[in-house]
Amino acid sequence: MQHKHYPLIIVLLLFLCTQKSYSQKNIVVRQVDKNTFARQQTGKEKVIPYLEQRSKKGVVNVYEFNTAALQDSIFFLNIFPGETIKAIKQKVVKRGENNFTWHGYIQGPDKSQGSIALVYLNGEISGNLNYKAGNYSINPMGKGVFSVYEIDFKRAPYIEDAPGMTDSHKKTDNAAAATPSSIAQASCNLRVLVAFTSIAESFIKDYLGYSSLTQFALQAIAESNQAYLNSGVGVYMELAASVRVNYTESGDDATDLNRFMGTSDGYMDQIHTYRDIYAADVNVLISNNSQYCGLATTVLADAGNAFCVVNYDCALGNYSFAHEIGHLQGCRHNPEVDNSISPFAYGHGYVYTPDGWRTIMAINFNGETRLQYFSNPNVTYNGVPMGTTTTHYNARVLNETTGTVNNFRTVSSSVTINSDGAVINDEASDAVATTEVVLQDGFQASDNSEFTARLINCVGPSIVADNTAVVNTDESNVADSRSALAVYPTVTRGPVYISTDNSNLKNTEILVSDNSGRIVAKSVNNAGKKSITMNLSHLPNGLYIIQVKQAGKSITRKVIVQK
Questions:
Q1: Could you give the strand order of the β-sheet that contains 357-358, starting from the edge strand earlier in sequence?
Q2: In this structure, are 268 and 236 located in the same domain?
Q3: CA 270 to each of CA 9, 164, 286: distance values in angstroms, whole numbers, following the listed order
Q4: Residue 231: what are its φ and ψ, rounded to 5°?
Q5: Is residue 174 situated within a structural domain?
Q6: Residue 334, domain CATH
Q7: Between the CA of residue 62 and those of 139, 223, 303, 380, 437, what are the distances in Å?
Q8: pLDDT tens figures, 448-475
Q9: 321 and 218, same structural domain?
């Protein structure tokens, strides 16, 4: 049998632009009559009535979308009566001309802050918008058209999470158990496999408006990545594969989760083959479970139990997708409902009652809006710190565990794919290797699927913004990465924290330089300290290199100042 070798596959697709006339190029939307639209759309009859039930004010609006505006670094949204808000690009992730994610932050006329994450796939738009402590879902309604509504957290259809996280689902494989590590050890992006039950697929398409499971998976990942960007977390998540499973839900979350994780129990066992072929670190089952919004195996997983189940109706907007993966990365709920200090005393979500908001890992008390942030005392929302250093600091946990979690499945030099890795209708997969991807006879990718193959060099920290680049250094002259030197956050408004676990910073010189190599800040004489704080708020927005020199060796990190 002759094998076909494809060292690199590039998927080229046509970019679809709405051929409508807009009064201004970068005005993105124009409202249409939703009742007229609903009558004209086959298969969307249930969507608007269902979304109206979920809406905070019972209001759902439908808009045409000017896709040409997404080619600009700034566009404007006119979805609020009497108000136009500005969306400013943070990052665009292109998977093909017709498949990309647009990340940005929002600036209102009164300087109110917010963020937006949009996924464009084959002409359809989905997204999520946070603005003025409101959380808005953007659901696809066909090519070039979407609906917008404000999520009502007091109408949450399910209990958000299991009452307590335990190790009852503990399972290990040959990989080492997870241990805290510095952001320096992150070797690749966090790769996620997303699996769908048949009943979840039906509800997603019939009631949420999605015509593509892949778009739903990409939107869940986009919302997670926007939360990382907002929170100063040096993690970037990407889709390894989205697949269907031939499984009838049991009606019990724990049972479904155990069966999803089991390797040879006769339930969904093919998932583990897909996981290995497509190098997925973390695995998520999207279901119609009726007990909770989600359930993870444990807090701080290892390679063998990095599995969770998420209800389709909570995955987007409620951020249950990011929430359950957050448990696997070591994060806990807010201490009011979970006072455990294991594995990290500072690893809790945060609730700010006066303004009625909470961070992603915090559980709903009184209908507080869940903002697209992980707790971080160095990030503020309308002037209020979003955590505390001692108790509510999920961003630190994520930065410290990313090097372990992102390596639950490492990228091989060569990947061979046969019929076991086939991609059928409305599924997607992303094959990665460092040298070659081999497609054997028997492999197939149907016309309505998304398959890519890429050669990547997984060295250095995850990329968190367009202008962040991996710096290749001489390993013989780099301080031992096991020294757990941490530099965080990777995106900051000013404060940068530098710490080490097993020694102090005596005789250590810390230099900060801009892109031209000019030194713009330094710190010396740190004897007896295990951590220091450098304030970079006086520097212009941009990328900076932090070099830590000690005993003739050095470690280089990158941070972005964004005020």
A1: 351-352, 357-358, 369-370
A2: yes
A3: 25, 30, 16
A4: -105, 5
A5: no
A6: 3.40.390.10
A7: 9, 21, 43, 32, 43
A8: 899 999 888 764 433 333 322 222 222 2
A9: yes
Contact between residue 256 and residue 287 where contact means Cβ atoms under 8 Å apart: yes
For the stretch 427-447, pLDDT in tens is 999 999 989 999 998 898 888
Query: Choosing from 64, 249, 324, 427, which is the catalytic residue?
Result: 324
481, 185 Cβ separation under 8 angstroms: yes
What 8-state DSSP symbol labels residue 481?
G
For residues 215 and 268, membership in a common domain is answered with yes
Which of these, 429, 94, 58, 441, lies nearest to 241 by C-alpha position? 429
Any idea what the CATH number is for the domain that residue 534 is in?
Answer: 2.60.40.10
Task: Give the dihedral sign, CA 74/12/122/456.
Answer: negative
| Beta carbons of 54 and 152 less than 8 angstroms apart | yes
154 C-beta neighbours (distance < 10 Å), count: 10
Q: Is residue 156 part of a domain?
A: no
pTM of the model: 0.77
Sign of the Cα pseudo-torsion (232, 233, 234, 239, in order): negative
Task: Tell me the range of 46-55, 108-117, 241-250 where mean pLDDT is highest.
Answer: 241-250
Q: Which domain holds residue 78?
A: 25-151
Q: Which of the 8 DSSP states describes residue 357? A: E
Residue 462's SS3 state is: coil
432 shares a domain with 399: no
Q: Is residue 315 part of a domain?
A: yes
Number of domains in the chain: 4
Residue 208 lies in a domain: yes
Judge if 319 and 296 occupy the same domain. yes
> Could you tell me the pLDDT band of residue 316, with boundaries at 50, 70 and 90?
very high
Pairing of strands 124-131, 4-6: unpaired
Task: Give the Cβ contact number of residue 175 at 10 Å.
Answer: 15
pLDDT of residue 110: 64
Q: Which tokens belong to 454?
A: 């890429």
Cα separation of 356 and 373, whole Å?
14
CA neighbor of 402 nearest in space, from 222, 239, 184, 199: 184
State the angle between helix axes of 198-207 and 47-54 in degrees (0 to 180), rounded to the nearest 10. 90
> What pLDDT shows up at residue 23?
45
Angle between helices 394-405 and 213-231 (to 10 degrees): 120
User: DSSP string spanning 210-226?
Assistant: -S-HHHHHHHHHHHHHH
Is 324 annotated in the active site? yes
Number of Cβ within 10 Å of residue 496's Cβ equals 25
- Residue 10 predicted with pLDDT over 60: no
